[in-house]
Amino acid sequence: MAAVDAFRADADWARALDAADPLHAFRDEFLIPPHGDGAQTYLVGNSLGLQPRGVRQALLDELDDWARLGVEGHLHARHPWLPYHREVRAALAEVVGADPIEVVAMNSLTANLHLLMASFYRPTAERHAILIERHAFPSDRDLAASQIRFHGHDPAEALIELDADEPNGTLSVAAIERTLAEHGRRTTLVLLPGVQYLTGQVFDLAEITRLAHAQGCVVGFDCAHAAGNVDLHLHDSDCDFAAWCSYKYLNSGPGAVAGAFVHARHAHAKLPRFEGWWGRNAATRFEMRPEFDPAPGAEGWQLSNPPILALAPLRVSLEIFQRAGMQRLREKSVHLTGYLAWLIETQLPDTLEILTPREPDRRGAQLSLRVRAGRAAGQSLFDYMTAHGVLGDWREPDVMRIAPAPLYNSYADCLRYAEAARAWRARHA
User: Fold this and answer.
1) Which domains does the chain have, with CATH numbers?
2) Which neighbouring-strand residues pair with 31?
3) Where are the alpha helices (DSSP H) in 81-159?
4) What is the pLDDT of residue 64?
5) Which segments of 298-400 does DSSP mark as H helices, in order?
6) Which of 163, 225, 260, 299 is positioned for an S-S bond with 195, CB 3.0–4.6 A?
7) How far apart are the C-alpha atoms of 219 and 221, rounded to whole Å?
8) How far apart are CA 195 and CA 362, in angstroms?
9) Which positions of the chain have pLDDT values less than 50?
């Protein structure tokens, strides 16, 4: 791959780099939405990943097995339904840096966080605060506040919100450390993102966990924008739990089945939890005993049997991840996002500012951008790009999020974004 000082805003150069990219063939395994006579420049995998070509057949296979086998499909389908969630377990563990026993695919993101907080948010009269960031995704604030109220406390007092202390709304580890030094003794849970949804900042999970554990806090992470995007190393981070959705970088479809992580040190702990039949030990589940014997590891937080038609797309996508390799994908992502950042900084410095940190280890595939001329101009640029088949997404009040996902985006895609932005600027000069 070319070094940063060798980047060029040239179509032939971008095509040559794409042709030399060892991961470029994976682009053909995804269905890119059409635009006009060609394909859309799709830079919004941080919101909804593209459909892998193999998903349609995988779903048809499950439907055919249902038609052919009925209930016997639980044991005799091509991918038997009874243990289906385990078909994705090893690959999912690879993607998030965990041991297989630590992960499970189930439910939706916020439902999983609530289930995990039933076990890991155990407030007392003296220690019942939850630490989040002030600009957390609304559902994270909602779940934290509602958990506090559910336990009889007041979010106005018990919800501690971290303020950004860096330019463009990002948070330093030093700010987290200062807040924990001040409030750690009344905080029972630290709940932060793996990647911040608005700024695209990557958080240092291991250091945050170390600081929080030193204060006696439990640590959980919302990895919605991190799973399949950055090197998470959830096990090595030593965090207590995490959850993520699978419809963004994991390409598993709208409303896709989510994932959960529980650190191996809790695998056999007798933690309080909301119990369900599928969370029982598989060895004794069908003995229909009255007592709840939890499955070891993250599987013990399951409630119901796996949703086969929701898991099939995840299985297909994770198989692609295994062939591509998370390390190679991350290496390409760093370079691809670096190219997009270089284009913006050299071709559009008077038009766009980048809110996402410059350091590669503090950002993933997403760049959050703001138009320097203000919100109205930003909305105009966003609408122009969409009309011309260059798709990102908009977050209020004035942020465009552009995400070159390494599985299917290219250097040519990044260049097309810059060219379209320059064309808009020329029209509005």
Assistant:
1) 4-31+325-427 (3.90.1150.10), 60-322 (3.40.640.10)
2) 51
3) 84-87, 89-96, 109-120, 138-150, 155-158
4) 98
5) 308-324, 326-347, 375-387
6) 225
7) 7
8) 9
9) none
